[in-house]
Amino acid sequence: MAGTAPPAASTVPHPRNPFDPRAGQPGRLRHWYENDLGWATVPALPGEPLRLVTGVRFDVLEVPARAGVRALRHLAPGSPVALQGGRTRLLVAAGSAEELPGLLDWLEWGTAALDLDLRALGAGEAMDAPARPGPDTPVQGAAVWLRPPESGCEVEASLPTLSAMGGVGGAPDLVRLVNTVATECHRIRLRRADHGPQDGQALASS
What residues are paired with 42 via a beta bridge? Predict the structure, then answer.
């Protein structure tokens, strides 16, 4: 009708498609972890990385990169492994972080375990979410996947666990994994003592 004003534009924003480039890399990354993998995340503040909640679907053993490389032979092919800042993050069965101190004691590391550059992330903690493998280019220094998780696959079956002791089940043995990384962390510490802090840091990040 002549003289009728056009309808006012709606002020209600349309929901964003997480696959729309305008949603931004953080939105697409969060969608992948939460919807494709079923992993809980901690919403990222502006300028900060998305974080993955540990202690629910998995725990994390964090060690120097060299120790992590030594541990790969004890992991199943589908067991995810991340890298960041010269550190390797090995995903292990949920609850492993609580078992770590007792496990190190059982392996007879004793007081030497206090000096190992080995830490575990479990319930109530989080790790930086590595960039999704594929088109997204990770920011320098950000976490990346050395062995990425597979969409639509249950990660638990591939993670090292104490229940694998004695050869029961198909999961990797957490005991062998921990003993390997503890031994390599100890060697790195000895090299650091012999060659000085700079050489030790170089070895830990190699």
Answer: 51
pLDDT at 91: 97
> 125: Cβ–Cβ under 8 A, 6 or more apart, which residues?
54, 55, 97
Q: DSSP letter at 36?
A: I
Domain ranges of the chain: 21-40+49-205
Q: Are strands 51-53 and 126-128 parallel, antiparallel or unpaired?
A: antiparallel
d(CA 42, CA 120): 18
Rg for the chain, CA atoms, rounded: 22
What per-residue string of b and e applies to 25-34 under the rule 16 or more CB within 10 Å gives b? bbbbbbbbbe
More confident residue, 122 or 201: 122
Contacts 24+ apart (CB under 8 A), 200-205: 201/86, 203/64, 203/66, 204/64, 204/65, 204/66, 204/86, 204/117, 205/64, 205/65, 205/85, 205/86
Nearest to 145 by CA among 23, 32, 42: 32
